[in-house]
Each structure stands twice: as structure tokens, then as C-alpha cells.
């Protein structure tokens, strides 16, 4: 089949408005006769469920957690972008559009990105109306801070808890509709398959995770909002339960999977401390506003730090290498995540890492504390304040901005980050790839939509910080509720979708067959045994840098591991009870297929762009020496993969990307 992105005609600034003016609508009296399933209730799914119910649709919402409040969106820390120009520093819809396309290394669809920038301002108004406690300045106006990859301050924030506060806003909107009976909430339920009838998505098969019961649920349309697939690496900043099962199931039923190799390695994470670890912890990118990243200039100092013979505070200023400021003077510590991550890895690979494993750099707040302290001393008319007084005043400001993040770091590392620089290292975080969708957010299956991080999104090959929350809420509050109406306008005479049909029978039988296999297979190894092995292959050969030989090897190793998994996996417990190991088995089985497609996609894309860094494609000379080298002539497209059985047999479909409003050129943050 040919890909049709359904991008509206006309100038980019008018596309969304004109589209809404001519879209088909559903009469308010007819909406009550139409059912919509929303799988996932984080920021994207929660906002979509609440808005669709507010419009009058009957919504069934599914979450594998015990409450939507526990969605992984809660972990987002630093903020949410919006082009409101409250700081008067030159921001605009166009500049947010430009920064996002450039930040994504020119691998995103222009029309979708411009729409995202256009509706970003509405998100802030919506959330303020809900009572989200954004930070405010002295005059009571909403405050902004800067994030990586931009030269303006457009990030709205609530300390380091922005995701939590936004999620509570969406959850309160959901609760209003749950109380009215317009949302039927299914907590502790996991979608295990989608059901298609005559080519249209008409429902899902779900497992009640408490009782083990398999359930059928029907609807006129299905929306997938289940987040990304970062846990394919085992160790990531994602919650341990975050998974790709819903997305992978719809991929196997006909939804194309786009750009799986576009994954983000976040530069600001607490370093790995041992093999026993089950996840990694993110330190917000907002910290790079005030924290300076450095390693020792001299290899002897680095070795002393690794052996704990020296403290970072023992190293004088002249012997510190602020490598981001040195390499990228225009953006300094606020370069995009992919650039900062590779720079940190390069320093550590060269032997300048600062912890016992050699995989850490410093994030230092001493200069910020001193700067803020001196400013506060002037404001308070203090003459000749002592160093201690300046420190106390500066620390209070930093604590006000980032306090909960510093507290979290100290609890995990057992060091005071106000007095000793934080140690950070890149870790798997976000996935820009995902299910392919058109301008309407519909997949290649009719009536099947995908929103938020689960789709291949507006972020191209790299997401700028504070843009995930923006995209999730834009999709849920302001885009999907319009576009889904165009499809549902043809469903007003359909009537209730029955579940006692051959299509539901077949899907349920497939689900039960797989679950029975896991329970009855008398293998030798736990699910985690396989997940850890997969994660090591992915990190070593499909991680921060990739090459053809490693990718070919990874594909073979993952296939071999998958075959062993189906022979030797052992799942304790029973079917008809709460069984977390059974849940994990299904999720890891899907990761073992997705991982191979991931490597296949990375092998196909013989260029470096954004989070995808091919060692064969690097600038060899000039000002950009050592930086990623794109190949726009051959790879300026979205890679959408069609399922054909084995991941190795997946068929590539290309959506050629057109750049009419932004000049296509190599990124530079120098």
C-alpha cells in the first residue's frame, strides 16, 4: 500500500485552520451513540479521553497501572514548551517550529510540527484553567526557563515536577467525566491485541491483571496512547512497567512502525552503579540552565577521581574542561540532547570519566550558587557579605528552582549536590520512532489512531527537551478530538459493535494460546534473564553509536536470543491470578521482535542524524569535524515498516519529506 500523509494544501500557517474549517463533524446528539477506546492514560491518553468524553463520546479508558495518576508521564521533570514569548526574547510560533525541525535534524514532517507549535500556547491556557501550579515570577506572571537546542526561554515549569502537575490536571478532567459516566475506567487492564472487522479497528482484547480474566471490548475507533519503547534497552529512565506491547500488537495487525532507530539518549542521568540495577534515574535537563558540565583536563586527575584519591572540589578551575562550552560556544551547556550525550561519551571513552566505572561527567552548580548569591546580596543591600552568606543566599535560589531534584539525587547517590558536583551520564530516555500516523493521527489501519510518544511524532531524529509534554497534550486536547470526528462522522448509523463475532473469537484465542504457552513452558530461565541479555545487545551494538558490522551482529544475536526465549523461558504462577511475571513475559517477547526491527532500521539508514549516530557517517574536516553527517540526498524520508512475519522480513515504505518552509542544512550549535 502507498503511504498517504493527508497533509492539507496551502501555506503552512493556514493548513490547520483551513483543515478544521472543512472537516466533517459529528452532531452533538449523535456523539452519545459512538464509542471510543483509549488505551493508555498518561498525558496523551488522559487528555484525549477527557476531551472526547467532554465532547459527548462514550469512552472506555484502559491503564495497566492501578490509577491514571501513576502513568509514566508523572516522571517528567523540567517543563513544557509553548510559544507565548512571555519573556520578550523573540520567541514565536515560527521559531518554535524552526527549533523543533532543526532539533530533530530535519527528519520530521513540517506540517505536523507547525501545527504543534501553533496549538502550544493553547495548552498553557488550558492547564492554567485546570489549576496547574506553574512557576510564577515576582509580579505573578508565569515564569519561563530555557532548555537545550534553543536560544529563547519558552519552557513553563512547576519546579521539577511538571509532569506530575500536568498529569493531575488531565486526571481531574478525566474524573469529571468518570463521575458523569462518560468515561468507563478500566484500571489494571492490559491490552493484548486489537480486533479488526472488515479492515477497521473495532475493539481490543484485554487482560484483567488482578483476576487474569480475558475481556472483549468493542468501539467504533481505537486510540493507542501507551508511550515509547525505551525499555527495549532494559536499563532506561522509563518506569519498569513501560512497554511496547500495544504498539507492537497493532503493528502486527497492519499499522506501520516508523523510524524505530530514532531513540534518544538523555545526557543528564544518574550513572549506572552496578549489575543489580533495574532502571536508571533522570536528572532534568533544566539543570543544564545553571549547572556547568565538566571533566578534568588532565588524565592523571581523572584517574585519581576514579580511584577516589581526589575530590572534584580539589581540582582548580584552570584544570577543568567545560567541554560543551568549549566545543559549542553559541549554545554551551544547552546544546540538544543527542549532541550533549555524544560529547559526554567521547570524553569518557577517552578516559576522562570521573566515577569508578569511568562513565560519568560532572554537573556543577558552584558558579550558579555564587552568581545568585551575589545578586541576592545586592538586592538586600548587604555590604561585603562573607563567602558563607553568599553561598547561603545562592543555595536558597537554586533550591527554590530545583530543590526536589537535588533531594532526589542526594537520596540515590548519598552526596550533597549543593556542595559536591552531581555525576551524570547519558541513558536511554525517549523514543522518537513509533507507529506511523498521517496528519489526522490515524495509522495505516482505518479507525486506529496513535498519539503521544507511541507514534513517530513530530520530533524527527531527536526530541528537544520539554517537547514531549507539549506533543502529548497537543495530540490529546487539541488535535485528535478534531481529526477523529472526520472518521466517526461516517459511523453514526453503525450502531453498537458486537463482540460475539469470529474476529473477536480469533483474537481472543490467539491471546489465550500465547498466555497458556508461557504458563506451561518448562524452561530454565526467568523473563528478566532474557530482558537483560537483550538490553546488553541493544546498548553495546545499537546504542549511542552504531556501525554496520555491529548492527548485523545485533540482528543475528537478537534472533538467536528470541528463539532461545521461546524454548527456555520459565514463567511461574497461574493464568487466573495476579501474575507480574506473566505480564513481563508478553512484553519481553514483543521487545525481542522490536529489537531486531530496530537494528534493521538502523542498518538501513546509513547516515548520522539526531539520536541515530552511524560511525561511518561523520564530518571529517572543517568546523564540524567529528559531528554527525546527514545524507539528505538518500535518507530524507520517514522509514515506515510493514509487518511480514519475522522482523527480518519487514517491508520498507518511504514517506519522502518535503522542506518548503525551512532550509535543509547541516545542524550547527557552535
TrEMBL record:
Gene it is expressed from: sdhA
GO molecular function, one term: flavin adenine dinucleotide binding
Protein's UniProt keywords contain Transport: yes
Domain Fumarate reductase/succinate dehydrogenase flavoprotein-like C-terminal: 531-669
Subcellular location(s) per record: Cell membrane
Family membership: Belongs to the FAD-dependent oxidoreductase 2 family. FRD/SDH subfamily.
Annotated InterPro entries: FAD-dep_OxRdtase_2_FAD-bd (IPR003953), FAD/NAD-bd_sf (IPR036188), Fum_R/Succ_DH_flav-like_C_sf (IPR037099), Fum_Rdtase/Succ_DH_flav-like_C (IPR015939), SdhA/FrdA/AprA (IPR030664), Succ_DH/Fum_Rdt_flav_su (IPR011280), Succ_DH/fumarate_Rdtase_cat_sf (IPR027477)
Protein name, per record: succinate dehydrogenase
